[in-house]
């Protein structure tokens, strides 16, 4: 028996009517070594941390049943050990009477060491019908202690292995679960409102239940051989823990996706506000330009400018409320509709500004054309032509007066352009045949 292994087996000796002195001494030496090993093993078992935890725990299920038997076995092991100690002490006393034992003493020692000379009390049995008494040989006694010790050690080491592995891992997963729940709450993932919120509740309940069961019934969470018998042959059963960990990882990924949706919603809402703000500014500019056009341009049909899109602004407020309440299933379709309509609204505002300012653009184009022809005439030395001066002054007065009659001003510019062309053509190309138009 070692600190973590079974008692060393008792090999025994070939049966003989009476053991010789040297054989007695060999058996006593071996039994003495076994006695020390047994005592050390029992003391190590008594001080094992797993045993102390089992004694102080409120056990249930398989562990409760097996620990009840194991506690009885440990108690009986000490009873057996005391009987073993007494038998060994008696044999040593007989052997110490004489240096050379007499035939009678050798017969007595043979009976003590090989015969069923160890009497146990009536309670010294773990199973079967109660016995009034039981007599065993030393070898049978050690074999039974071996078996009970191994069984007791299996229970203690297995429970200790499960307790050393699973509760700490469950606690770490529970800490991760708390962080995930906090993140979920921040993005609006709550029980009853989002499937992942319900999943978090189920995982929380599962981990709470799992930890309680592991603490109270650790033997139910062991898979394979006992850790005390075959190193690496068994391990804590982490099936439920692994399933909870996978479920939590799935929820965490879902929450990260929701977080991405939230961040994307923030970006889209900011863009919507910007687009609608630009549309409002463009419409305001169009209204101001319309007043300017009406004051500066006469006899012109200037389209009316509509007000800001109040419906879109109201829906934008609704979208912001959906974001605040984390109602992503409502926010996404609303954002898609708003983005399309906001872009249309900005395009309409720009078209309205273009339509309103069109008369001013026409006047600016006429002014530019008039000045261009005047410069052209001046380059050819015809700036002092009386007809050109008259028609220029007329066109300029119309274009630079308010309100400006665009139709009359355009006609005046055209007359000036025609007069300039008539004056410039002969100088540019020389005399022309009036019948063919060819240069002479």
What does this structure look like?
There is one protein chain. By secondary structure, this protein is mainly alpha-helical. Helices cover 72% and strands 4% of the residues. It contains twelve helices and six strands. The protein has helices at residues 21-47, 49-56, 61-95, 103-114, 138-186, 195-216, 239-296, 310-324, 328-356, 358-379, 386-399, 406-429, and strands at 118-120, 134-136, 222-224, 234-236, 297-298, 404-405. Strands 1-2 form a two-stranded antiparallel ribbon. The protein has a two-stranded antiparallel sheet with strand order 3-4. The chain is rod-shaped and about 170 Å long. The N and C termini lie far apart (138 Å).
Task: Give the key terms.
440 residues, mainly alpha, two-stranded antiparallel sheet, 12 helices, 6 strands, 4% strand, rod-shaped, disordered N terminus
């Amino acid at each position: 028996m070692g600190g973590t292994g079974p008692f060393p087996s008792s090999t025994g000796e070939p049966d003989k009517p009476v053991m010789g002195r040297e054989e007695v001494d060999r058996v006593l030496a071996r039994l003495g070594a076994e006695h020390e090993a047994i005592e050390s093993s029992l003391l190590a078992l008594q001080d094992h941390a797993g045993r102390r935890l089992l004694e102080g725990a409120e056990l249930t299920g398989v562990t409760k049943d097996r620990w009840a038997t194991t506690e009885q076995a440990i108690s009986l092991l000490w009873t057996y050990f005391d009987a073993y100690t007494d038998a060994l002490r008696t044999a040593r006393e007989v052997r110490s009477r004489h240096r050379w034992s007499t035939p009678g003493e050798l017969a007595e020692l043979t009976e003590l060491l090989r015969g069923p000379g160890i009497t146990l009390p009536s309670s010294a049995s773990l199973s079967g019908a109660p016995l009034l008494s039981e007599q065993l040989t030393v070898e049978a006694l050690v074999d039974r202690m071996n078996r009970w010790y191994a069984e007791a050690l299996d229970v203690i080491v297995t429970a200790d292995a499960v307790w050393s592995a699973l509760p700490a891992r469950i606690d770490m997963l529970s800490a991760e679960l708390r962080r995930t729940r906090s993140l979920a709450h921040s993005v609006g993932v709550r029980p009853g409102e989002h499937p992942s919120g319900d999943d978090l509740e189920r995982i929380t309940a599962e981990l709470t239940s799992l930890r309680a069961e592991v603490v109270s019934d650790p033997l139910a969470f062991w898979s394979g051989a006992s850790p005390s018998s075959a190193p690496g042959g068994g391990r804590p059963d982490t099936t439920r823990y692994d399933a909870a960990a996978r479920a939590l990882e799935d929820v965490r990924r879902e929450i990260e996706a929701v977080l991405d949706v939230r961040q994307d919603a923030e970006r889209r809402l900011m863009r919507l506000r910007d687009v609608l703000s630009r549309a409002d500014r463009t419409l305001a500019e169009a209204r101001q330009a319309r007043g300017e056009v009406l004051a500066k341009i006469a006899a012109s049909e200037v389209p009316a400018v509509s007000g800001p899109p109040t419906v879109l602004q109201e829906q934008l407020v609704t979208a912001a409320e959906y974001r605040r309440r984390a109602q992503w299933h409502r926010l996404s379709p609303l954002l898609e509709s708003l983005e399309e309509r906001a872009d249309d609204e900005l395009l309409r505002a720009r078209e309205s500004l273009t339509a309103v300012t069109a008369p001013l653009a026409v006047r600016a184009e006429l002014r530019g054309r008039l000045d261009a022809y005047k410069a052209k005439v001046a380059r050819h030395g015809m700036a002092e032509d009386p007809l050109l001066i008259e028609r220029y002054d007329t066109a300029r007065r119309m274009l630079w007066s308010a309100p400006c009659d665009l139709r009359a001003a355009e006609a005046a510019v055209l007359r000036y352009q025609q007069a300039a062309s008539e004056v410039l053509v002969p100088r540019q190309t020389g005399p022309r045949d009036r019948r063919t138009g060819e240069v002479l």
